[in-house]
Structure formats: structure tokens, C-alpha cells
Amino acid sequence: MPFTPFHFGPGACLALPLKERLDLPVFLLSNLAIDLEPLAVISFGLKYPLHGYAHTLLFGSLVGIGWAALAFAGRRHLRRLMNRLRLPYRPDFRIMAISALLGAWFHVLLDAPLYSDIRPFYPLTANPLHGKISGGAVYLVCLLAFIPAAVLYLQAAGGKRAENDRAGLVKKE
């Protein structure tokens, strides 16, 4: 997708109901990490496919695990962010790693129907998902997904700041 934020609507629709089993910020930001590859290609004028190795399930997994390690190191900042968003947050590396993998794979599979240069099942060269769903339909679903995502967020955020404070999850500064 030309703009990574399009991934956040469907991603939030999936991750918010599963917030007890998934690490929400790690899942969502793993989607963002995958698009660092095309950003680098565009920014530096690289002679490299716009959607290269990071847009495969195999190498996307490496991006996801790398992001999980970074997120675990910065978990204190994620906890603060989640508290500001009024969402409970208890980081656990295993859950972070699973969430990062699923987020990366979600991104690859969401982009695969749109772009012929994506090879989701690398080392296989074919993209059997390309063209199965029209680009317009994918963009529309992604855009409309922000509506239920907002509703899910508002439901999840109700009264959670105090819960985080009582549980000792927020460090007083």
C-alpha cells in the first residue's frame, strides 16, 4: 500500500479484540516496519524492487523478530504510550515475538493482492494472490476498517488508565 497507515485499520480490527493474546503496539508497528524497505528504495533511489525481501513471509519474519527485540528493549516506552491511550499493557517477549511475526505476515498478505512484484511465498517466484482482489476493494476495506477500529478502541480504552496505575504498570515520573 502506498501509505502504511492503511494497514492500521484492518490491523486494529484484528488486534484489538485479541489484545489479551496479542501485543497491540508490536502487532501494529510490525506492519509499519515492513514498509521501511520501500521507503528506503524510494528515499535513496535504490535499484532494488520496491517490494523486495521484506515483503515475503520468510524475510518478513526476520523483520518481525527484529522489531520484537527492539520493542522489548523499549517496552517501557510502549507501556507509557499504551497508558496514554488508556489501554492495559503487560509486555512479554514471547507474546511480543508472536505479535510481531503475525503483524509482518498480515502486512505481506494484505499487500500481496495489490502488487505484482511481491513474492509472498519466496523462494517461490509466483504471487498467486496478485489480482485476486481489486486494488480499489482492498483500499476501500482498509479505509472503512478505521470505523470499527475506532469503536473497538473506544470500548477497550474505557477506564483502563486507572487500572494500569493500580496494577503498578505505570512508572511515575
UniProtKB/TrEMBL annotation:
Keywords: Membrane, Transmembrane, Transmembrane helix
Name of the protein in question: Inner membrane protein
Source species: candidate division TA06 bacterium ADurb.Bin417
Regions that span the bilayer: 52-74, 95-116, 136-156
